[in-house]
Amino acid sequence: MSWVHRLSILGVVILLLAALAGCGAKAPSGEAPKAGTEATKLKVTDLLGREVEVTVPAKKVVALGPGALRLVCYVNGASKVVGVEDFEKKNPAGRPYILAYPELKNLPSAGPGGPQSSPDPEKIASLKPDVVFITYLVDKAQADRLQSQTGIPVVVLSYGKLATFENEVYESIKLIGKIIGEEKRAEEVVSFFQKSMQELKDRTKDIPADKKPTVYVGALGMRGSHGIESTQAQFPPFVAIGARNVADETGLKGSVMIEREKLLAWNPDILFIDEGGLSLVKADYQKNPSFYQSLKAVKEGKVYGILPFNFYTTNLDTALADAYWAGKVIFPDKFQDIDPVKKADEIYTFLLGKPLYEQMAKDFGGFKKINLAE
Description:
Residues 60-334 form the Fe/B12 periplasmic-binding domain. The protein is an alpha/beta fold. The protein has 2 domains: 40-192, Rossmann fold; 206-364, Rossmann fold. Helix content is 42%, strand content 14%. The strands form 4 sheets. A 4-stranded parallel sheet has the order 4-3-5-6, sandwiched between helices. It has a 4-stranded parallel sheet with strand order 9-7-11-12. A two-stranded antiparallel sheet has the order 1-2.
């Protein structure tokens, strides 16, 4: 065999070995990110209509304002949070997302927080998040200014006008999912809420209005605790099950403070008390027993506790659990298959990964009949 042939064969062998080596080679750790996880720039439109360029998937986030952190937790984003507001570190009672992720309270401060607070650009910038999610605290100009001051994309979210099961909150959940790489989870969360609301509606849709008992909910929290006069027209758990809420006769939407005489005139068949204000109602009962004893629901023992859900805006999980509980009380025939406690834990577990009803009941009382005289 000539040396030319030998060189040719040797060259082919070398090429084959190189090809085989390439097929089995592994990229060193930290190189060649998994498919679908490469960081890229993406332009999104937030809930104020602002176009914001973000790097996705965001690995570090800050959530500011009433309810922003809650939505991030729903979309499996708690581990990406690098700082929380001081307000979030206070008493966690009534906020299931903090009960589910207590480690969030140990993170660095992202500013004071609270419904009337202003974002702290310096603290936010020091945390070096990839994105800032924010609710309520800013308008378009303020959001643009905060983004300019921090050099970090600011994405504004919304809970809608009534801060419950509205399209705005669903769009906010989807937007978070898109930005942090949890689009599938976000779609699952939105679907969960939508299917639950449809199921609740279907259970009572065939009951004529005049066959439904009248109901009232008192002592609702509204920037603090209030007594029996604090109620809500279009109360979300009642709306979900088509309940006949006497407060809807006001023609209003949202929080309402009524006169006591109005409650006597309405004289509802069933009375719910928000357990966040239950102590105020019981204290008032001791001072004015005749007023309460004039109410049909009190005389007939149809007074029930309901878990408070308005803590740093709406805890959608608790509001949904309350809807099933209210359905069980108002329309027992239509909710025979529902155990409200088990249903509550199903909701908490799906949204936050833990059954939290027991802790909520320990803090407030839970789903039960109430004797105001005790």
